[in-house]
């Protein structure tokens, strides 16, 4: 058996097809952001993104460092090459916004957009807002200065 075939079979042992979505779910190691990774090299000290490896293996292409492999299924553990496409940072960000996956400045927000509008456009005292919304004075300042929640 050739080395390439062994490598491909080893890789294929690390995912299972999900029948409802068509995703191939990665069973190997994952990064903290829930993206699959495959270790390689001496002592397994080097890692590559599993969905990137999948795309390269199945379409037999080389990718440069500016090319990203993006998901059409929004499942970071999916490595099905039919659910992947080549993009760049801008196209990935545009896709994120289009699909409604962007936090739009909210991140792990403790307040709602409506509350942020109230802070930004209202005249209520900071002490009242701090006490009522349970957020810091600096959070209020950043909203009023247009640094946080800048799109509202």
Structural class: alpha+beta
Q: How are the strands of the largest sheet arranged? A: 1-2
The shape is: elongated
Global Rg: 22 Å
Q: How many independent structural domains?
A: 2
* Assigned CATH class of the largest domain: Alpha Beta
Roughly how many Å apart are the termini?
A: 60 Å
Mean pLDDT: 81
- The oligomeric state is single chain
Low-confidence stretches: 1-6
Summarize the biggest pleated sheet.
2 strands, antiparallel
Please estimate the helix content.
Answer: 25-40%
CATH fold-level name of the largest domain: Homing Intron 3 (I-Ppo) Encoded Endonuclease, Chain A
Order of helices and strands: HEEEEHEEHHHH
Total beta strands: 6
Task: Please count the helical segments.
Answer: 6
**What is the correct CATH architecture of the largest domain?**
Alpha-Beta Complex
Strand content: 5-15%
Top keywords for this entry?
alpha+beta, single chain, 152 residues, Homing Intron 3 (I-Ppo) Encoded Endonuclease, Chain A, two-stranded antiparallel ribbon, 6 helices, two-stranded antiparallel sheet
Q: What's the helix and strand layout?
A:
Elements: H1 3-12, E1 15-17, E2 24-26, E3 37-40, E4 46-49, H2 50-59, E5 68-71, E6 84-87, H3 89-98, H4 113-121, H5 126-133, H6 137-144
Antiparallel strand pairs: 1-2, 3-4, 5-6
């Amino acid at each position: 058996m050739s080395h390439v075939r062994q490598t491909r079979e080893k890789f294929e042992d690390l995912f299972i097809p999900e029948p409802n979505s068509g995703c191939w779910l990665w069973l190997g190691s994952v990064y903290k952001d829930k993206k699959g990774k495959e270790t390689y090299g001496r002592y397994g000290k080097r890692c590559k993104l599993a969905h990137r490896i999948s795309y390269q293996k199945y379409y037999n292409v080389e990718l440069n460092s500016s090319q990203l492999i993006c998901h059409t299924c929004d499942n970071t553990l999916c490595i099905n090459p039919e659910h992947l496409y080549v993009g760049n940072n801008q196209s990935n960000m545009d896709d994120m916004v289009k699909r409604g996956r962007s936090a739009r400045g909210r991140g792990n927000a403790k307040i709602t957009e409506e509350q942020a509008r109230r802070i930004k456009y209202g005249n209520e005292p900071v002490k009242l807002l701090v006490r009522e919304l349970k957020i810091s004075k600096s959070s209020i300042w950043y909203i009023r200065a247009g640094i946080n929640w800048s799109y509202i």
